[in-house]
Amino acid sequence: MKILKPLANNITLTTANTVNNARLVYVFASAASLITVTSNTNVVKGSIVVPPNNFVLIEKEQTDTLTANLAVSATSVAYKD
Q1: What are phi and psi of 21, to 5 degrees?
Q2: How many helices (H) and strands (E) does the chain have?
Q3: Could you read off the pLDDT of 22-76 as tens digits, one per residue?
Q4: Are 76 and 8 in contact (CB under 8 A)?
């Protein structure tokens, strides 16, 4: 059984945000959304498209930021398999 443990309150994400300095972020998108991971030195590390009504877990450095082209829900989480 996979277990997600919320570590902070959910936020609405569009502009650059560390999501509470998270290392693992649960991102839910109600519409197809492009999520971009950027380092604290403004280097784009990568991006991913989240399909509509789906979620992804994004692993990042604490100082990395996430941005989204549309508003998505993001929460810092811990994961256990």
Answers
A1: 55, 35
A2: 0, 8
A3: 999 999 999 999 999 999 999 999 999 999 999 999 999 999 999 999 999 999 9
A4: yes
Residue 32: CA atoms inside 13 Å, Cβ hemisphere, count?
A: 2
Tell me the Ramachandran region of residue 22: left when phi exceeds 0, alpha when psi lies from -120 to 50, beta otherwise. beta
The helix/strand/coil state of 26 is: strand
Residue with tokens 């604490």: 62
Instruction: Give the integer Cα–Cα distance in Å for 29 and 26.
Output: 10
Q: Are the C-beta atoms of residues 75 and 8 closer than 8 Å to each other?
A: yes
The model's pTM:
0.94
Q: What is the CA radius of gyration of the chain?
A: 12
Task: Match 């290392």 to its residue by tokens.
Answer: 23
Query: At 34, phi and psi to the nearest 5?
Result: -95, 120
